[in-house]
Amino acid sequence: MRIFFASAVALFLSWAPAAQALTLINESRDTLWIADPAATTEEAIPPGALFEIPDSWGDDRHKWFTLSSASTPEPCGEFRSRWGSIKMPAFFVGIEVGADGECLVRDELPEAPVEPEPPVEPEPPVEPEPPVEPEPPVVDEPSCEGQDPCPSSCSETSDGEDASAAAAEMPPRGNGTWVYDALFSEGPAGPPFSRAGLWLPELRDFNAQAEPAHRLHQVFSYGGDLEMECEGYGDCTREKMHVYYYPPSSAHRSRSFTSVGVSGFQSAQVYRDLDEETLVIPVFDGRFDGDGYLKQFHTLNEAQARTYADTFARTVCADGTVAGVQLDLEPFDLDVEAQAHFYDQVSLNLAGRNEELEAIVPCVTERFPQGRFFSVFTFARAMTPQLGEMFTRYGNGYMILSLYDLGPNPAGVASSPEAYRRYVESELATVMRNADAAYDVGFQLAIPAAASTKEFESYKGVVSGYAQEEYVAAALDAIDASGIREDERFLGIAIWGFSRFMAYPPHTDNTFEPAAPPADVQAVLADRM
Fold it and tell me: What is the CATH number of the domain that holds 359?
């Protein structure tokens, strides 16, 4: 289709805002339905009406949305990507959608119709004021002075802090989920552009239907990553070992709001609004192998690895709202000296035992008197005495053990639910066999509520023949049969995960479905998690 430029004023259009934001003008005969890039918000645009595209639906260069109507399923086809989303330059003033679904770019918006002023109503008669009642006598409030302990009627909370977060168990118990706020409006291989709190409505809906014990009170929001820009041991100074969490700044020359959207820090603040019991646990990832940003990590000596851990702790503890973090640095291996030194220092720092660091950015605060906790994402085979001693030394470390991506199949070849259950049972047996020697380190169990590379409904559009609900049911059946829920080291279930696309390798068009837990999976989790 051709794109036409016009400036004619449309007939009978409702009032458009004066600001020069991209505005959709419905000149078709049908109601248009417009949704944000993640399809979490949908609005109706009646015939003759205008709709201003919110700033949050894109960046300073482009806006993304989906559009449909009863008579034209795919209007504005000339702007559509292969993923069905519409990408419009942000500098456009108006887009007129015609009866045939064709879109015309307009360089001005219609004037607002002048409404006649309503007639002035006469003022009602003034009623006499009622007599003033005398104030009751002042009664002194009860005092806590001399009472030990102070009764609950006299207790106060300080600074309006979230009571549940301040009193969080170390390590925390409960169920959690990973959430990724990247919109990927141009598809999974395009720029991420994140929007803070993308999945907050979905999490609220889940908790509303879930049994109290099965609700999600831990949100593993994507915090950022660790990156190195050095060529190896001799070149790796503190200035070249980065932790990305806060908004882009001059120190992060390769990052900008245009390319990445909001930061992990901003996402963490938004997900605190899930409910008063929520713990937001930012996830920091990175890869030591291949072309990963940490490919030089294993060349670090002990002093350098501990310095990197200091930088990480300063970044985390500078956020006074975060109780703990999750590290997904892969492949995880404490037999590698640089990793062992790094995690040992992370444990020390987050517990507030590094006096030099505490004097600069304290990890122990009035809100977090035990410091901050941390976890690592890995498999049961990594539960060793070395890890257990390191993670329990200060009582602040635990493990998130994967019960997905199991079995011998390569990525992209689905396991049957029956085979998957056997793999889960084997993994749980390894957990119970290793736990005693691993200093009773605590653990969560992670299950595939959305597609993983070996448990999925479809890969690159090819259906596997299995439903995600079957994998979830198989995992929960195995967990329940094992008796592991009664083990005091068991901390809860972690579900993978809420994202717009599940792609492997990341940032490719090799997508797995479902990318987020579908309704039947959520129903099972609400009843059984």
Answer: 3.20.20.80
My answer on whether 329 and 197 are in the same domain is: yes
Q: Which of 69, 86, 106 is the last residue of a domain?
A: 106
Q: Helix axis angle, 385-392 relative to 337-350, nearest 10°?
A: 20
Judge contact between 208 and 274, C-beta under 8 A: no
Question: Which ranges of 261-301 would DSSP assign to H, the alpha helix?
Answer: 264-271
Tens digit of pLDDT for each residue in 109-153? Answer: 877 555 666 666 666 666 666 665 555 554 444 444 443 333 333
Name the domain boundary from 106, 128, 155.
Answer: 106
Find all residues with CB under 8 Å of 524, minimum gap 6, and list them: 469, 472, 473, 476
Residues 90 and 183 occupy one common structural domain: no
Of the candidates 220, 522, 276, the one whose C-alpha atom is nearest the C-alpha of residue 400 is: 220
**Judgement on whether residues 244 and 333 belong to the same structural domain of the protein:** yes
Per the structure block, which two tokens stand in for 103?
């879109």
Half-sphere exposure of 359 (CA within 13 A, CB side): 2
What contacts 86, CB < 8 A, 6 or more positions away?
Answer: 64, 65, 66, 67, 76, 79, 80
Q: Residue 148: inside a domain, yes or no?
A: no
236 within a domain of the structure (yes/no)? yes
Q: Tens of pLDDT along 162-189? A: 434 444 578 999 999 999 999 888 889 9
- Residue 139 domain-assigned (yes or no): no
| pLDDT of 501 higher than 60 | yes
CA–CA dist 340, 302 (Å, integer): 9
How do residues 346-396 score in pLDDT, each as one tens digit?
999 999 999 999 999 999 999 999 999 999 999 999 999 999 999 999 999
pTM: 0.74
- Contact between 463 and 146 (Cβ < 8 Å): no
Domain, as residue range, for 382 = 163-528
Strands 283-287 and 216-228 come out as: parallel
- Do 188 and 55 have their domain in common? no
Length of the chain: 529
Q: Does 87 share its domain with 197?
A: no
C-alpha dihedral over 205, 208, 212, 213, to 10 degrees?
-20
The domain tally of the chain equals 2
Whether residues 90 and 170 share a domain: the answer is no
Q: Where are the alpha helices (DSSP H) in 210-363?
A: 257-260, 264-271, 302-317, 337-350, 355-358
Q: Degrees (nearest 5) of the Cα angle 447, 453, 459?
A: 125
